[in-house]
Write a structure and sequence with these properties.
This is ABC transporter ATP-binding protein. By secondary structure, the protein is an alpha/beta fold. The protein contains 10 helices and 11 strands. It has one domain: Rossmann fold. Bound molecules: adenosine-5'-diphosphate and magnesium ion.
Length: 266
């Protein structure tokens, strides 16, 4: 498995932002994490992306437990393995699109303008390469962020509400990019409360108050491959079998959006 979360919790005082979650994600899977605002999605992403550590439990990437790595090894994992895409774009306002992409190269290895331009070309923005973020639409800015996330060829893309600030047309463009990445074998984990975005993923899990409350598959082939490789359903609490015995195993949700829409969303 590319990613293994083993009974992870994030606890702030009395609040369990993520509560004893076990989840495995194989290389190449496209997973959506859905849930209402405050359900722990960003907290979970931050722990997967080595930006935060769990209060309990462990996170492993490619079989390496993150808690066993020192600061420089963790920095290497962040730089080499993970590409991050956020709802807010976090572009440097006084740098052009291509320079923003080159900042990511700088932190990774060496800057290479030709490669940065190619990355912008991949997201359809070659002719906007020398524009400042303020001269780009929201959709274009998000595509710069995706180019930036892709520059180091990460195995894992973590995207937190990547289409949250986009109109429908730009949402489609971003989803098409994710679809291409998925076809090329990139593992994608996307946090979203948009049904359309979630439905593009192979698999969806739903959180509520940090607890897993649902899991469903949108891609039967991916499900069969996952199960054949020994993949288990995600679960909260003790063991999956124990949870089922106790009658609180997550149930498949027929319509995640409908469920998500009943909560108050960000
Ligand atoms: N640094 C923090 N300190 C205290 N509480 C936090 C912190 N970060 C997140 N929380 C709380 O954890 C819960 C989950 O937050 P978050 O993961 O951001 O939810 P989501 O991304 O699903 O909206 C919320 O109740 C939030 O207020
Ligand atoms: Mg969030």
């Amino acid at each position: 498995m590319l990613l293994e979360l083993d009974h992870i919790s994030k606890i702030y005082g009395d609040l369990h932002a993520v509560d004893d979650l076990t989840l495995t994600v194989p290389a190449g899977q496209w997973l959506a994490i859905v849930g209402s605002s405050g359900s722990g999605k960003t907290t979970l992403m931050n722990m997967i992306g080595c930006m935060d550590t769990p209060s309990k439990g462990s996170v492993s990437l490619e079989g390496r437990r993150l808690e066993d790595l020192n600061a420089s090894q963790l920095a290497d994992v962040r730089k080499n393995m993970i590409g991050l895409v956020f709802q807010k774009f976090y572009l440097v306002p006084h740098l052009t699109a291509v320079e923003n992409v080159m900042v990511a190269q700088y932190y990774h290895s060496v800057v290479d303008q030709r490669q940065a331009l190619e990355a912008l070309d991949r997201v359809g923005l070659k002719d906007r390469a020398h524009h400042l973020p303020g001269q780009l639409s929201g959709g274009e800015q998000q595509r710069v962020c995706i180019a930036r996330a892709l520059i180091n060829c990460p195995k894992l893309i973590l995207a937190d509400e990547p289409t949250g600030n986009l109109d429908e047309k730009n949402e489609r463009i971003v989803l098409d990019l994710f679809r291409q990445l998925h076809e090329q074998g990139t593992t994608i984990i996307v946090v979203t409360h948009d049904a359309l975005v979630a439905s593009c993923a192979d698999r969806e899990i739903m959180l509520n108050h940090g607890v897993l409350v649902g899991e469903q598959w949108n891609n039967e082939t991916a499900r069969e491959a996952y199960e054949a490789a020994g993949g288990k359903p995600a679960f909260t609490g003790s063991t999956a079998e124990g949870a089922q015995r106790d009658g609180d195993a997550p149930v498949a949700f027929a319509n995640p959006t409908k469920a998500a829409k009943t909560g108050d969303l960000e």
